[in-house]
Write a structure and sequence with these properties.
- The chain is an alpha/beta fold.
- The chain has one domain: Metal-dependent hydrolases (TIM Barrel, Alpha-Beta Barrel), CATH 3.20.20.140.
- Helices cover about 45% and strands about 10% of the residues.
- It has 16 helices and nine strands.
- Strands 1, 2, 3, 4, 5 and 6 form a six-stranded parallel beta sheet that branches. A three-stranded parallel beta sheet has the order 7-8-9.
- Strand 1, helix 3 and strand 2 form a beta-alpha-beta unit.
- It is globular and about 65 Å long.
- The N terminus is likely disordered.
Length: about 400
């Protein structure tokens, strides 16, 4: 009897060894090997990175791997990225030209980054540019304007920023513009317009004409419904998540997800712990009175305000969320809207914390592996990693071309 047990034990050990290290020798991929292959074959892109201000810092080197932050060239290479949309953002301004001037300087820093690293980066303005960059082994650099306040009510500014390379504009940030209502960040903002004004609709029409993607992250629900009604091209949510799993005004309801699918658009899932984990959503909401106080105190000192916000938010238990929660949000969109309407917009370097397992952009293969572990097809995984966004971008370009 003992000898039979020993034989059975030996067989078990052999089977385990075959499954973990021997499968590839017999032409079968392990889960990690399969994930690695699919990740390399896919277009891997992120529609929202806030690393951009660092490009203007003289003592920050993009080519060096940093211990802090979420993105740099070595970690993008480790994550096998094909494209990144660099966010062009600054806080609320007085409408005196400051926002436009800052946006131009920030966009110039992206152009300069590409100039400095021509062997690694390619400035992209079309979906075809992204495909070309991938073929050449380069990372496509695109730009998105985060907040309609940045154009300062000028269609001329919108057109100029498009010519400089901006390929989406988020209609609002965390505050209302004179032509669109926002969702807020830590809590809902009181609406002023009931969604879009007539001028807001004109702005969307001009974005459609140009071939600039309409981004509805950060907007109020009424603004979302107006945007999908008015836009003749698919819209995107460049860095949002789903409200059914985390009830935050920044996130999208199931009804909105279905409308987004009908529109042909895509939601790019945000990785911020306090947008995807319900417990942390509630903690963040509780901190809003202190955030509001800090915002008023440092309204003329944006760097000090950023530091104070991070200090306040550091009191939250950010380490508790796992990367699997991000995949929960992806799966929910697939269930409600379909696999053609979800992608990745992590908000790297724009948020205080991301989940365990997705600490920075080098770890993005976690998404691929976890989706495969849950039984999703290679086709679905490739759509999530970037295929869906490429499809939307191409459709926006066709609308602009009058096709």
């Amino acid at each position: 009897m003992k000898s039979i047990c020993r034989v059975n034990l030996s067989l078990c050990i052999a089977v385990l060894a075959f499954g973990t290290i021997g499968a590839s020798a017999f032409g079968q991929e392990s889960l990690r090997e399969r994930a690695d292959r699919i990740h390399r074959e896919a277009f891997v892109l992120d529609t929202h990175s806030d690393t951009t201000p660092k490009f203007e810092e003289l003592d920050w080197d993009f080519s060096v791997r940093h211990e802090e932050g979420h993105m740099d060239l070595p970690r993008l290479r480790e994550g096998m990225f094909d494209a990144v949309f660099w966010s062009i953002y600054m806080g609320r301004t007085e409408g005196d030209g400051t926002a436009i001037k800052t946006a131009v300087r920030r966009m110039d820093s992206v152009h300069e980054l590409v100039r400095k690293y021509p062997d690694d980066l390619l400035l992209a303005t079309t979906a075809e540019d992204i495909r070309r960059a991938s073929k050449e082994g380069k990372i496509a650099c695109l730009m998105g304007i985060e907040g309609g306040h940045i154009i300062e009510n000028e269609l001329a500014a919108l057109r100029t920023l498009f010519r400089l390379g901006a390929r989406y504009m988020t209609l609002t940030h965390s505050f209302n513009t004179p032509w669109a209502d926002a969702s807020g960040v830590g809590g809902s903002v009181a609406g002023e317009h009931g969604g879009l004004t007539a001028y807001g609709e004109e702005i969307i029409a001009e974005m459609n004409r140009l071939g600039m993607m309409v981004d509805i992250s950060h907007v109020a629900d009424d603004t979302f419904w107006d945007a999908v009604r008015v836009s003749t091209a698919p819209v995107i949510a460049s860095h949002s998540s789903v409200r059914a799993l985390a009830d935050h005004p920044r996130n999208m309801s199931d009804e909105m997800l279905k409308a987004l699918a009908k529109n042909g658009g895509v939601i790019q899932i945000n990785f911020y712990n306090a947008y995807i984990d319900q417990v942390l959503v509630e903690q963040q909401m509780a901190l809003q009175p202190r955030i509001a106080e800090a915002t008023e105190k440092f309204k003329d000192k944006p760097q000090l305000l950023w530091q104070e916000r991070r200090r306040i938010y550091s009191e939250m238990d950010m380490a508790r969320t796992n990367g699997s929660v991000v995949v929960d949000h992806i799966e929910h969109v697939i269930k409600v809207a379909g696999a053609d309407h979800v992608g990745l917009g992590a908000d790297f370097d724009g948020v205080p914390a991301t989940p365990n397992g997705l600490e920075d952009c080098s770890k993005i293969i976690y998404i691929t592996e976890e989706l495969l572990r849950r039984g999703h097809s290679e086709e679905t995984v490739k759509k999530v990693l970037g295929g869906n966004l490429l499809r939307v971008m191409e459709e926006v370009e066709r609308v602009a071309a009058g096709e």
